[in-house]
Amino acid sequence: MIPKNPYITGNPVGDSPAFVGRTDVMTEVLRVLKHPEDNAIVLFGQRRIGKTSVLHELEAKLPRKGPYYPCFFDLLDKSQWPLERVLRDLAKTISDASQQKTPDLGADPKTTFRQDWLPELLNQLPTDKALVLLFDEFDVLDEPENETVQPASAVFFPYVRDLLSIDHQRLNFVFVIGRKIDDMTKIALSLFKATPTKRVSLLNQEDTAKLIRLSEMNKTLNWTDNTIEKIWQLTNGHPYLTQHFCSRVWENLSDNNKSPDKLPTVTLQDVEVVEKSDILEASRNALEWLWDGLPPAEKVVASALAGAGAKAITEDQLKTILNESGVRTMIQSLQNAPRILQDWDLIEPANGGYRFRVELLRRWIAKSKPLAQVQEELDRIEPVADDLYNAANRFYANHKLDDALTLLRQAVSLNPNHVGANFTVSRYFAC
Q1: What's domain 23-199's superfamily in CATH?
Q2: pLDDT tens per residue across span 18-44
Q3: What is the CATH number that goes with domain 294-380?
Q4: Cβ neighbours for 227, distance < 8 A, ≥ 6 positions apart
Q5: Four-residue CA torsion sign, 185, 202, 49, 293
Q6: 68 has pLDDT over 50
Q7: How many Cα atoms occupy the beta-carbon half-sphere of 82 within 13 Å?
C-alpha cells in the first residue's frame, strides 16, 4: 500500500482528520444556535487561518450535535452578481442541502424568496429542526471604497438583515468574514449590530502538536518532542503554515526512505532542511493573499517590524526605523497600525514592544516585502491625498502648473509622507 501524505495544504480541512482544535469556536457556535433569542454569529479572523475549514466542519458535525440542517454557501465569486442571481443560487443550494426540489422563484426572486419560498420551506421542516446557513467570505460583498454601487452588497446586506427576523427558532446564520466588524461599511455594520462574534485564531500548542502528529495516526512518520517544538517555534500554531511545513518534511523523508519496512522518525536536521529550503517561496500565494488583506499603514509597519528581526521592537525603535526610511510624520493611521496588527494576531506585545507571532511569516515579509519596496504604500494611507496627487499630475501634464502645485500642497498637508507628492514638489516646484 502506497503511503499517503496526511497533511492538507491549500484546501479546507473540515470533516477530515486534519481538522484539529477549534473547540472554543465550535462550542460558541452551538451556544448561539441553542439560545432562544440569538440566531446568528459572526466568525472572523485573518486570511488563511482556517475559517472555511471551520464552516465545513460545522456542515459535517452540526447534524450530530443537534436538530440542524446546515447549508454551506460561498460568496467569494459573487461580489458582482445582482441580488436576484445570488438568491436563485442560494435557494438552489438550500434546496439541495435539505433534499427539496429545485425552487422556481419566478420573475421577482426578491419577494418570492423572502415572503413565500423560504417560509414555506421552514414550515415543511420537522418541528424540532432548524436550517443553519453557513455564509463563507461574507465580507467580499462589502467594499469600503464604494458603498453605493456594488451590485449585491448595497441590497444584499439589508435583505439578509430582514431574513434574520423571519424565524428565530428554525432559521440560523453563521457568517464568516476576513476582517473585523468595525472595519466594515455602515451598510454591513447595520446587519451585524448586536450579533455575537468569535475570533478564529492560531492553534494552541497542544492542538498544533496533534496536527503535526497526523502522520503518526496513519503510521507513515514519527515525530520527536524536540522536532515538534521546533516547528511550533516557526509557525506558532498557524494551521496553513504548519500543514505546509509538515507536508514538506513528510515528502522529503518519503522520497529518501531507504527502509520502507521501517517507520522513519523526523530529526531536527530534517526540520532544518525544510526551514532552509524554498518553503517561504512555496507558500507565496497563500501569504500574498494574507498580505493583500492588510491596509496600507499596516503593511508599512509590518514590513518595518519584520525587517528588524525576530526580537521585540519598541514603539520608539519603530518610529526610528520609519523615520530613517523616509516617514516624516507619524500620522494617526501609522500610530494605530501596531494595535490593528495585534488585533489580527500578526504581532504580540513582548518586552515592552512588539514582535511577530509567526516567525515564518515574519521571515517572508522581511524577504518579500522589504520596507524600501513597501514605501509606496505610504501614498495610499490617506486616499483623499492620493486622489489630490493624481489630479495634480493631470494638471501638470496639461501645463497648469499653479493648479498642480495647489493640489500637491493639499496632498502633502493631508499626508506628509506621500512619497509621490513630496518628490514632485521638491523636483519640479522647488524655489
Answers
A1: P-loop containing nucleotide triphosphate hydrolases (3.40.50.300)
A2: 999 999 999 999 999 999 889 999 999
A3: 1.10.10
A4: 266, 267, 268, 270, 271
A5: positive
A6: yes
A7: 5
